[in-house]
Here is the input.
Amino acid sequence: MALIAPSLLSANFLQLEQDCTMLNNSRADWFHLDIMDGRFVPNISFGLPIVEQIKKVAKKPLDVHLMIVEPERYAEAFQQAGADILTVHYEACIHLHRNIQQIKSLGMKAGVAINPHTPINLLENVIDQIDVVCVMSVNPGFGGQQFIPQTIDKIRALKKLIAACGSKALIEIDGGVTLDNASALIHTGADVLVAGNAVFKSTDPVATINQLKNS
Ligand code: DX5
Ligand code: ZN
Here is the structure.
């Protein structure tokens, strides 16, 4: 059964506490928090103060997805703010191995996200160090985009790489996940599904999370 990580990027920020409580009372496994700097991605979302507030009410792990340049400058601050899993982008890290070590030495699980254009095999030399590989199935920066179908082939390739290297990394799919593609993703090897619009634009988010969970 896959883990479900609703992305609060699509939540109603005027009633964030209510949305967090809804997630606490649902079958969601993680809170997915998208941090954007307007540099690595062409959009700005929210930052540390919001993560800190969410941490006060969240009863589930915070899966913090950094879409920022120089993520090493902020790893400690996000740990202090309450991140349990901290994901950095392959494309934003000059010293990815060092970044992964830094995240783990701060006591968090280390995630590495890859953009749609980045081949899986570039992770070969670090895959045994990674807890979560976040495969971007849209170009990062915005919620509500269309799923890129080639992602399915990347899941297959990643699954092979993980097995070949004896890694325990989870495969997380982020972007354009819906009730229509969830089961194909899980069948192909996804362990974690991030869902923003599919959950928060639903008329019944708890029921949608339940359906994703049962996919
Ligand atoms: C995109 C973010 C995603 C996004 C997913 O840059 O990383 O987590 O919020 O939103 P949906 O599920 O609406 O594509
Ligand atoms: Zn994300």
